[in-house]
Prior knowledge:
binds guanosine-5'-diphosphate; binds magnesium ion
Amino acid sequence: MTDFPTRCGFVALVGRPNVGKSTLTNRLVGQKVSIISARPQTTRHRILGIRSDDESQIIFVDTPGLHQREQHSLNRYMNRAARSAASDADLVIFVVEAGRWTEQDEAVLLALEKVSAPVAAIINKVDLHTDKTTLLPYLAEFGARREFKFIMPLSAKRERNLEPLLNEVRGLLPEGPFMFPTDQVTDRSERFMTAETIREKLLRNLNQELPYACTVEIEYFRQQEDRIEVGAVIWVARDSHKGIVIGKGGEMLKRVGTRARQDLAAQFGQRVHLETWVKVRENWQDDQRALRAFGYDEK
Ligand SMILES: Nc1nc2c(ncn2[C@@H]2O[C@H](COP(=O)(O)OP(=O)(O)O)[C@@H](O)[C@H]2O)c(=O)[nH]1
Ligand SMILES: [Mg+2]
């Protein structure tokens, strides 16, 4: 057999919510493809982050955190997205937070037993520990939990140890041709990124449970000569949520809109005009038709 000149494969990032899977995806790709917040349910879909160089193409698969409680159809959708990403991958990377081990991490570890692909691990957020030697017992304990192809401590946010990670990953990719053009960084459209960016601002600005009951639908996305025009509907699950999203005198909606517009302008490198509406679709998280309409379907 002759050696193929390139390597290419899917690398699924799995783990409980908030360990930094999406931050890592963005840093590895060098561009924002996945939204970030300290809230669970920030990532609801499987999102590809593609990194290419001359010899390799690594297709990172950012996934929703695995949830134990599947109280809504939406949660079941997210769990399926995470599980199927892991089962289709050439390499699965279990992401945890340095110094922390929770019941949710334990549940992910258990779920990984069913995965046939090789499994490696990332210990993220090492920047939170100034004295790294305090992490040695944690590392030893972690390494005893199962066999990992490698265990890489790093900081996604501070971009520490990303090169060694990439080298490990490249070595484990199957030989084969690239699956995406080398300048493509994600499989998601500008429309999708726009909806996600607005949802990120909702997550970051609304308190408590409400962000989980929101989703964003793009009504129109028009490239004009000198700017992009976007119309977006923020769907909430209950009538009582509407007022909260709009805020006193429209203040909250204005703030979310302004932040989204600034972020989108930076992402697209041009001016963005954004128009938003808030609408109610009762219990959309359990409504199969609504879920499909809002993009939460398998395909
Ligand atoms: N200190 C620190 N915080 C991080 C790091 N990576 C991610 N975070 C933070 O952890 C939170 C969750 O990040 P996110 O990427 O959305 O996690 P995900 O739910 O696993 O995708 C955010 O507030 C991030 O800013 C890191 O390396 N160090
Ligand atoms: Mg995420």
